[in-house]
Specification:
Elements lengths: L1 E8 L5 H15 L3 E8 L7 E3 L4 H16 L10 H7 L7 E4 L8 H8 L4 E4 L43 H14 L3 E4 L2 H8 L7 E4 L14 H8 L7 E5 L10 H11 L6 E5 L14 E6 L4 H10 L2 E4 L8 H8 L4 E4 L4 H4 L6 E4 L4 H13 L2 H16 L2 H18 L1
Parallel strand pairs: 1-2, 1-4, 2-3, 4-5, 5-6, 6-7, 8-9, 8-11, 9-10, 11-12, 12-13
Helix pairs in contact: 7-9, 8-12
């Protein structure tokens, strides 16, 4: 089988692009031909191809996207479709599988592809059924048609200079799903339910959970890995993952408030994996913090995840974060908010501790139970077993191969 995997970036562009790249690698390792088309990458690997073509065409397509974004038409014009078809031979593939599009790929490219070749689109966020935002937070206008958008100042809609074409954009997407045969994949049942309740009609939708490398992300002796990483402490270690500590959606400020609620009864060392602005350090007050910075080395990231006792995670809006699976696989259970698809992965008081979104006090009680009552030890064992059984790379690949086979036959 020959598969074209398409996302806006390589694995360093975010979780969705990372899923696309890992699926491409797994397909190749299982004997299939797979290429990963990206609009940007730190370095093109042998299985990658530049989505926009050669340097001159790439600059032209990139500029064209920039202009239409400034006009408020977020990726409405399928500038890259001609490159995919004429230069990359898109019609030679058996399956084309799209992932994250925002700021780089037009949904109309999916529409054109779906008329000629079996087409899959994995929903890593809301973008497929909104007027352009990826996570609407409290806004529900995507259910009624968008317009008068409250997120025009936020990425990715902030590129439009305040011009609001969200209603038109959503209308075009709804029309596309109504008219074309596009198979939708949701990484969790929550995303599938949210998509179906959005007002956009989908002809084919299935749930395929993410998979991770359980050989890389595995439990190790915590004391030994802490020594190796230079984490010399007898305190309990609480992990925070923060690309941007001020990102409201990620809820890092809520996590800090949880830490304040347990201090000084519990005096943890907080391990922040990711970048943190200098002014954000003051928010921790007297709590000891170690920052790793942004990690590109997966083995080092797995080591830091394994070094923690608990992962404290309080997102306000999310789908099915890979970080949950990775930390569970390393024997570090989660305490935090039952947001999005997280309750499908983390079982309350079996593999972690979940509370309603925004309930800082209850999350603090969960952190206290995890660390002072040592519940994190039993949760860690159960969490590792759950990831091995449901969220391995092997299962992830098998589910996609089954889907691709069925789509080829029906096409």
């Amino acid at each position: 089988m020959k598969i074209a995997m398409i996302s806006k970036a390589d694995r360093y562009g975010g979780g969705a692009s990372r899923v696309a790249e890992e699926l491409c690698v797994l397909l190749q390792a299982s004997g299939h031909t797979a290429h990963h088309y990206v609009s940007s990458a730190i370095a093109l690997k042998p299985y990658m191809k530049p989505l926009y073509g050669g340097s001159k065409i790439r600059r032209g397509v990139g500029f064209a996207h920039h202009v239409t974004q400034r006009l408020g038409l977020q990726e409405i014009v399928p500038w890259e479709y001609g490159v995919l078809r004429l230069q990359h031979g898109l019609m030679d593939y058996d399956i084309v599988h799209f992932h994250d599009l925002s700021t780089a790929i037009s949904p109309m490219t999916i529409r054109l592809a779906a008329r000629r070749i079996p087409t899959v689109w994995t929903f890593h966020d809301y973008a497929a059924f909104t007027g352009g935002c990826i996570f609407p937070l409290e806004c529900t206008k995507y259910r009624t048609g968008c317009g008068d958008c409250p997120q025009l100042q936020l990425w990715p809609l902030n590129r439009s200079r305040g011009i609001d074409f969200t209603r038109l954009t959503l209308r075009l997407k709804r029309n596309m799903f109504q008219r074309e045969k596009i198979h939708v994949v949701a990484p969790c049942q929550w995303m599938a339910t949210t998509a179906r309740a959005s007002g956009t009609e989908f002809k084919d939708l299935s749930v395929i959970p993410y998979g991770i490398d359980t050989a890389l992300y595995r439990p190790v002796d915590k004391n030994a890995v802490r020594q190796e990483l230079g984490i010399r402490t007898k305190k309990p270690v609480v992990l925070l993952s923060a690309g941007d500590i001020t990102d409201k959606r990620k809820g890092t400020l809520h996590a800090i408030e949880v830490l304040r609620n347990v201090y000084p009864q519990i005096d943890p060392l907080v391990l922040v994996v990711g970048k943190m602005a200098p002014e954000a350090r003051r928010l921790f007050d007297a709590i000891e913090v170690i920052e790793t910075g942004y990690l590109t080395d997966d083995s080092k990231k797995a080591g830091y995840f394994a070094a923690a006792d608990v992962f404290l995670f309080c997102p306000l809006d999310d789908n099915m974060p890979l970080t949950i699976l990775e930390t569970m696989a390393t024997g570090t259970p989660m305490v935090g908010y039952a947001t999005g698809g997280i309750p499908e992965v983390v079982q309350h008081e079996k593999t972690g501790f979940l509370v309603p979104k925004g309930d800082v006090r209850s999350a603090a009680l969960g952190l206290d139970a995890a660390l002072r009552d040592h519940r994190h030890v039993e949760w860690a064992r159960a969490g590792r077993d759950r990831v091995e059984h449901y969220y391995s790379h092997e299962r992830f690949l098998a589910n996609h191969l089954d889907l691709y086979g069925r789509l080829r036959e029906s096409h």
